[in-house]
Each structure stands twice: as C-alpha cells, then as structure tokens.
C-alpha cells in the first residue's frame, strides 16, 4: 500500500463535482484518487441519488455510494437559490475544474453555465456530461447508460442471434466509459491551460462514448453496407472464439483469432485432423458450426479447471468466465490487490475495486470511502471562502446549505 503522505500527480488541484449519479462523479473520483481535492456539491437534505442506488447499509448510504464517492468532500449547497449559486461561483473562481451532468441548459438557468463561470475564472476547465451532448436535436432529451447503449449501437449487438437485444453485462458501462473520456478531456484541457492560461469546456455525450467503442462498425457499413447483428457468445470474425461449457457445468472463454492459435488448440485437443481440415481462418468461418461443435464437445469432456490447464499449457488464449464469487477467490486478483478493503466507521470495512491505472512512481490511493452528506460543508466554506460561523449558521437556517 502507498503511504498516506506520498505525493500524487494531481496534488494541489481543486475540483468541484456538481454532477450526480455515475459518469461525472466517476471522473471526479478518479481525479481524487490521484490527489485532487474534490468537493462534492450536493442538494441539502437529499444529496446525490447515488446514495440511495444499490445495496443499502447500516451507515445510511449504499455500497455504490461508498465505493464511487471515495476520497471526496461533501458540501451541501442549493444551486437553485441565488445565494447558493453565488457561493458556487465563488468556489469556481478558486477552483481548477468543475464537473456537471445536468441536462443542457440547466446550469445556464441558474447563472452557472460555461460563460458565467469562465467570466469569474478564465483558467477554469469544465466537464459537461449529458446523454446526447450540448448540441444537436436530441440535446434536451434525458439520457442514462441504458439509453446510451441503445442509441450508440451497442445493445443492438448484444444478445443471441435473432433474440432480444440485451444490456451488456447489466452494468452502467456507458457511464463509466464516459467518465474515462471525461478524465482524458480534463487532463488534456489542463495541459493546454498550463501552456496558455486559457480554460475550456469538454462536451461528453454518453451515446458517443459508447459509439466510439464499436471497432470497425462505422467504416464497414460505409464501405460495404455491412450491418453486424447479434452474434451471441461468438463472433463472425474468428472461430473458435466464444464461450464453452465444461464437464462440471462451469464456463470458459476461448479466443483463437488466427491460424497459429487454432493449431495450438488442436494440439491441446489431440485432434490433428481438425488442424488439417480447418487450418485456415476462411475454412473455419465457413464451417463455424462444425468447429465450435467439436470444441464444445471437448470442453464438456472434463471439468473446467482441467480444460483450462491443458489450454494454458499449449498457450491457447483462454480463461474462466468468473462470477464475482470466483473473482474473490482468484489468486491473480489477490496478488495484484485488485480488490482492496477500506475501513468504514459503521461497517468495519468495505471491499472495493483498487485504484487504476497503476503508476510506478506516483500511484493513486483510496484515503476514505464516500462521505456522509454535508460532512465537509463548514470546513470547506470556512477555509476556501472564509465564511464565518455566523454566516454559515444563517445560510443553514435558510436552507441554502
């Protein structure tokens, strides 16, 4: 584990996280893990809806909140009230980054849009995350990851051939992808700011983040009119390349993307006849049902661990299809500390994914899990904006904090 006093790459950076739910807050969380001071702005009395999303706990917040709001400070502030908006502008004037994911135009109604914040801090970088982006005919539509998967083209590809399109993995993948693009945009904008003194805003649309991950779909359609459909657990571009059940009812993945890999698989299966008959990718793709059937018959002949051992001995790309229970007992996850336990006052400790990416000299770290609502309001407003106890009490009495 990294020392709690070790310097991190983003030490000294101040970020206002005014976003809700996943994409924008995920960007802010990544910055916090690498040293940024992230001030989470939440609605008084309510907080981020993420506090109520997922598995509830005895501390009052969900496990999703505890994991995704790590390292942040919680400040309650009603942005819809003129006094709250004024305080937010004051905070933005002394911050480096603002992150928001309201529907386009919402912050402008409160006097907190890009033009207003840029005016008080020309060096400010602003990340704006929305379902469809800040421009275009769909800009005012609400958007969530599931909608982005659909509109961006990913859900159309997910599912069994001829079956119902499904959400890949039933996760908020589009939110997390957008959060990563948000961090990339912030770091690029900060580099430009440091060189020129000028801030800028970043426009991240959930559907575009999903669309960018679809490998050759766009050029293939434009070039040849190809419309890729649902391919189930395999792919039409390689064979065998999919998921196979083993003799104990457990599943594994095998990926033979070229002829050499298939030759190694044939050696593992002790089937030189298959190597002779289907040695070229074109032959395998033409008779993919036969090839996949032969591989499936072989994997069902023994328990998964035995099949995996044979595949790995022959350097066949393969791996178990892990449930989360499998992951918690996997020695590789343990060796790399991919799951870490972080203390929590009420719960004892909570297991969460480790900080990524892994830097050799200045790694990130998790200092604490998601904070209680408003836990840092007084401290932040006293130290950053020099508000007095009398001012804080007045603002709290009027529901601004």
Automatic annotation (TrEMBL):
GO-annotated molecular function: CoA-transferase activity
Keyword Transferase tagged: yes
Top enzyme class: transferase
EC number: 2.8.3.22
Keyword rRNA processing: no
Pfam (any one): CoA_transf_3
Protein name according to UniProt: Succinyl-CoA:(S)-malate CoA-transferase subunit A/succinyl-CoA:(S)-malate CoA-transferase subunit B
Keywords, comma-separated and alphabetical: Transferase
InterPro entries: CoA-transferase_III_domain, CoA-Trfase_fam_III, CoA-Trfase_III_dom3_sf, CoA-Trfase_III_dom_1_sf
């Amino acid at each position: 584990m990294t020392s709690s006093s070790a310097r991190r790459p983003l030490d000294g950076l101040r970020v206002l996280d005014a976003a809700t739910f996943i994409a924008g807050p995920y960007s802010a969380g990544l910055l916090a893990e690498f040293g940024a001071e992230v001030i989470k702005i939440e609605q008084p009395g309510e907080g981020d809806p993420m506090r109520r999303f997922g598995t509830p706990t005895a501390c009052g917040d969900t496990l999703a909140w505890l994991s995704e709001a790590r390292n942040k400070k919680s400040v309650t502030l009603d942005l819809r009230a003129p006094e709250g908006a004024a305080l937010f502008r004051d905070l933005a004037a002394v911050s480096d980054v603002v992150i928001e994911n309201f529907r386009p135009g919402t912050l402008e109604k409160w006097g907190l849009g890009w033009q207003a914040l840029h005016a008080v801090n020309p060096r400010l970088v602003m990340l704006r995350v929305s379902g469809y982006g800040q421009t275009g005919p769909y800009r005012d539509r609400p958007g969530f990851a599931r909608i982005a998967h659909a509109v961006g083209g990913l859900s159309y590809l997910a599912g069994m051939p001829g079956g119902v399109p499904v959400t890949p993995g039933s996760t908020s993948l589009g939110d997390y992808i957008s959060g990563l693009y948000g961090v990339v945009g912030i770091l690029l904008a900060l580099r430009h700011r440091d060189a020129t003194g000028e801030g800028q805003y970043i426009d991240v649309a959930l559907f575009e983040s999903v669309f960018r991950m679809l490998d050759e779909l766009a050029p293939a359609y434009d070039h040849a009119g190809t419309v890729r459909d649902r391919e189930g657990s395999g792919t039409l571009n390689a064979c065998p390349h999919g998921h196979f059940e083993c003799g104990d009812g457990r599943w594994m993945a095998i990926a033979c993307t070229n002829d050499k890999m298939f030759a190694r698989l044939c050696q593992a299966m002790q089937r030189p006849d298959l190597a002779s008959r289907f040695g070229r990718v074109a032959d395998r793709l033409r008779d993919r049902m036969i090839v996949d059937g032969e591989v499936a018959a072989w994997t069902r002949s023994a328990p998964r661990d035995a099949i995996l051992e044979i595949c790995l001995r022959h350097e066949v790309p393969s791996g178990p299809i892990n449930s989360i229970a499998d992951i918690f007992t996997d020695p590789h996850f343990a060796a790399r500390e991919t799951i870490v336990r972080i203390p929590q006052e009420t719960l004892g400790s909570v297991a969460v994914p480790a900080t990524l990416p892994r830097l050799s000299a200045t790694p990130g770290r998790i200092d604490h899990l998601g904070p209680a609502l408003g836990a840092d309001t007084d401290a932040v407003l006293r130290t950053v904006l020099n508000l007095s106890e009398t001012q804080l009490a007045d603002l709290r009495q009027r529901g601004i904090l």
